[in-house]
Design brief:
The protein has a six-stranded parallel beta sheet with strand order 3-2-1-4-5-6, sandwiched between helices. The protein has a six-stranded parallel beta sheet with strand order 14-13-12-15-16-17, with helices on both faces. Strands 7-8-11-9-10 form a five-stranded antiparallel beta sheet. The longest helix has 17 residues, at about 350-365. The chain has 14 helices and 22 strands. It is an alpha/beta fold. Helix 6 packs across helix 9 and helix 6 (about 120-135) packs across helix 14.
Length: about 450
């Protein structure tokens, strides 16, 4: 497809990288020449120096023949205007990043009136991801499929776990069949486990399990964590607001530390059930005064990556049992912090890029089996996808053992008529099923593509 991206910030650059790797022709528009040069030097895209809200810039960038325009500048209004112009000038679909809470209740109206194909609020989606991590404290990452009925949970196997030393064949008999290990990482090598694959303490794994069975499974394999009741949020920005709303709705006590007194007053009005503290969350005395060592979880959501990293490192030293979640903005820090004991890492750039990339894949699909959800797991090295099986799937009612599935790919869950099926060799895929697969390959757009 021909795609135009308005805005060459972190999200725009991440999108350009993902979409070109998926075989799309991409043009990027930005007024900042340095940002434009940065993306064109790293990714095979066409750069246009201009304003994405300019009709002239859009026309010269090829909007009249484009299939999609994605507006991801830092300005919500500019994004909406760029999409409106693209819709009126060309005949392409449009996607806008809309972040401000003031548009939350109006987003359906705006989508309809502006003709948006998709809108995304990265901060709200990030808050939802953090909430899932808090609900399953021992998880490294949590992604959901089948409208929340199935979870893909990233875990690290602890010392003393019954999984240590077990082969995949032994797991089903000793642990049960309610969960399936889909991906594993051993000594930094990621692989799709086979029957003779053995797991060891320290390995990272991703497991599919229904939400109802999560606690039982974790307890059985020796991964225990107490329920989180008290959360401290460092930084009172937009993510903090959305997160506090969700946590309070789940009966969790929330403290927010924010440096800006005006923002504190605003949050006090918006979140009457939260405790709002005016101060610097990197000051040790303030943290001790607020009994940070007694918190079940701390979310470092300040604007400075360095502050978030330092706070998380301090927490690990103070009490490694505190659940720590940090937000990272800068691309250059993401690889660095994965090697540090900072807890869970959340990137709004990654969340936004993955969300939009999933929609683009569905647009480009002509085989009848749409991508319903897509996540990158294991530090982005593995893709987990949920497909809705359409009429054109050519292997319905064929036993899975008779399917010649491409290498490094696993069918890990089938969701049918409200029931979760852990696929075995004699199970089949049927039209209307939601099928979750994990793969080390990238760019799959249809479930047909998993068959050789």
């Amino acid at each position: 497809m021909n795609i135009i991206i308005g805005g060459c910030g972190k999200v725009g650059q991440a999108l350009a990288d993902i979409l070109t790797k998926s075989g799309h022709e991409v043009t990027v528009i930005d007024k900042d020449m340095d940002a434009l040069n940065s993306v064109t030097s790293m990714v095979d895209v066409i750069g246009y120096h201009g304003d994405c809200t300019s009709i002239k810039a859009q026309v010269e960038s090829g909007v009249k023949t484009a299939d999609l325009l994605i507006a991801v500048t830092d300005d919500d209004e500019k994004n909406m205007l760029a999409c409106l112009i693209a819709k009126k000038t060309g005949s392409c679909q449009t996607i806008a990043r809309i972040r401000s809470p003031q548009y939350t209740d109006e987003i359906k109206y705006l989508r309809d009136e502006l003709g948006l194909s998709l809108s995304i609020n990265p901060e709200s989606v990030a808050a939802a991801e953090i909430t899932r991590l808090i609900q399953i404290p021992s998880a490294l990452e949590v992604d959901t499929f089948a409208k929340g009925k199935v979870s893909l949970i990233g875990l690290e196997i602890p010392e003393g776990s019954m999984l240590d030393g077990l082969s995949m064949r032994e797991i089903s008999s000793k642990v049960g069949t309610k969960a399936l290990v889909c991906v594993a990482e051993h000594n930094k090598e990621v692989f799709i486990p086979k029957g003779d694959s053995v797991l060891y303490a320290g390995d990272k794994i991703s497991v599919t399990v229904s939400l109802a069975d999560v606690s039982e499974y974790l307890n059985k394999v020796g991964i225990k964590a107490k329920k989180i009741k008290n959360v401290l949020i460092a930084g009172g920005g937009t993510i903090a607001f959305y997160l506090a709303q969700r946590l309070i709705a789940n009966k969790i006590r929330v403290k927010i530390i924010e440096k800006d007194i005006n923002r504190c007053e605003e949050l006090s009005e918006l979140l009457p059930k939260a405790m709002i503290i005016h101060g610097d969350a990197t000051e040790k005395n303030l943290l001790l005064q607020e009994s940070i060592e007694d918190m079940d979880a701390v979310c470092s959501l300040m604007h400075q990556d360095e502050a978030n990293i330092l706070l998380s490192l301090y927490l690990n030293k103070l009490n490694p049992n505190i659940k720590s979640i940090i937000r990272i903005h800068r691309n250059s820090y993401e690889d660095l912090v994965t090697e540090l004991p900072v807890g869970n890492i959340v990137s709004t750039k990654r969340i936004t890029a993955d969300y939009i990339a999933r929609y683009v894949r569905s647009m480009g699909n002509t085989m009848g089996s749409d991508v319903e959800a897509m996540y990158r797991i294991m530090d982005g090295r593995v893709e987990a996808l949920e497909f809705l099986v359409g009429e054109d799937f050519g292997y319905c009612n064929v036993a899975l053992k008779d399917l010649d599935i491409i290498d490094d790919t696993l069918i890990c869950c089938i969701y049918r008529n409200g029931s979760i099926i852990r696929p075995g060799g004699h199970d089949t895929i049927q039209v209307g099923d939601k099928v979750v697969i994990v793969t080390i390959k990238s760019g799959l757009r249809s479930i047909n593509e998993i068959i050789k």
